[in-house]
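Before our next group meeting I need something from you. Please put the record directly below this note.
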Amino acid sequence: MAIKDALLPEFDHEMKTTRRVLERVPLSESQWKPHAKSMSLGELSAHIVDIPGWVGSIVNSSYVDMAPGSGHERPRYASSAELLSAFDQNTAKARAAIASKSDAEMMEAWSLKHGEKVLLTTPKVGVLRSFLLNHLIHHRGQLSVYIRLKDVPVPSIYGPSADEPGM
């Protein structure tokens, strides 16, 4: 089995689940934070939307530089429709990028840099597992707590939730 054939079903499942959580975000309260050190609801939602957008940079290059001034700013979304549209676009592009890669390409080394300093080097498939899937799942968990604290029903994620017990 090709690496992409093993990765894509998990990708599809996690993106579908993430979208269900994003559908519930009350963007009218985008500035709300559960703690002073936390990202705001809007910032966390935008970060989650952004994560699938990293896939092209992962699979089509040998590194990403995270140094200040490297060119990325997190967008802000004015509406749920805009947030979900951006997520859908990022997800579709990410899926296509993954589907286009051979096993040899997935095993190529990729580095995370901060200027000239290399912070991490690992095969691209490892980056997709950690920076894409695991990172997104981590923040989706945070977002589910945020929406619970805003008294918004939490969807089923890996089984029933208190709001969707029959799932």
